[in-house]
Amino acid sequence: MLRKGSRLGKYQIRRRLADGGFAAVYHALDTVEGIAVALKVPHPEMVTPAMLADFQREVRIASGLDHPNILPIRNAQFVGDNLIVASPLGSGTLADEMKRRLTMATRLEYSRQMIEAVAHAHERKIVHCDIKPENFILFAGPRLRLADFGIARLARTTVAMSGAGTVGYIAPEQAVGRASLRSDVFSLGVILCELFGGGIPEWPYQWPPPGIERLRTSLQRDFQRQIRRCLELDPRKRYADAGALLRAFNLLKSKGKLLAGTKRPRKRSSASSGASDWRALRQRQFKRRYGRILDLTDDCGRCKGPISESMLFCPWCGTQRKRHTGATRRRLRCPRCKRGRNPDWRFCPWCWGPGFADVSDRRYKDAGYTARCPNRDCSRRTISPLMRYCPWCHAKVQKPWKLDGERERCKRCEWGVLGEYWTTCPWCGADLTRSTVTRRGRGGKTRGG
Question: Which of 204, 220, 254 is the last residue of a domain?
Fold first, then answer.
């Protein structure tokens, strides 16, 4: 065991966090960059050419995965005879988190993140082989990141291997050396049982598992059936991979069929129903016409009107949107406003705040980079329409944005608005029904900055 204060290259050991099968994990300080990291170091007695080959394979597999729910590798190198791997330092594991009281919404969010992480690996034909709560690292957000691809394999269909994995979470066929993508699906099913039911099913994995009463009272039957399908003894009866499980999960989520106790919408009177139908018709018309221009990815939680993550107010009912809770096409989210961001952005272009700590050195392409940063000294000079700040230099966009084809603008902020549809300016919250709209000539396009 490495002592507190000892050095491995540029890393100074603070304390030991955990022991794995052939490596220990330490809380260490990167003395060059001045940041805390999780440092994985092989046990001295385990250092053999075969073990080092396994360890190097883990590094190469993890380096090829790029997903917000998979733990990235910051650095991998030899220090003397030791191969060490540095990763971002989390605040704990899912195993630690499950010992605390969690809301059902949090459990559901953790479920989604776990399935998305494994689905990303399965898209690249990578079988993790050791899916368990201890390998999901917790970060702020909260966000889970899947770690430890030490015994993963690249596979086209099925891989023959020894019975590697963690007892209690491995599939029956994996225990006899026949792991596949479906084996990881089984392990996810075990974790879902533990997360929602409080117990781990044991051999022969007959339904109902321990904690079935908690599952029945907290989950709807369709979601219970999904978990049961994950735990089928016959791999052919399970989901083919985590991608198929994710699609089934998202389908139930869109229909509100995950958590039990969801109230059915009350029937409206014929008068209110007519008004509602008229509004719905207008909103569908608006979405067809402007959905692509405004990147309408969500609905307002209050009035259900179509909105985009760049809007600070709902243009239909005026509700302020300090945080974005809907979908985003970008890989990460701003921890303050929850709007989407690319990993290489230094600042949030939607809200004002300090720079991001986890900025990637890799440059990411974005089809939205069609405008120019107002700062001539900016290193990138490329921004997307409707951004308030440059994500590279933090310069504020001073010139009002115009919407493609519109002829109106808000008097207060001078940004483009669609007065024939909206009652509220989505950029500043001004009431558009009280003469806060000015008209101008035809032909405006989305531009600014």
Answer: 254
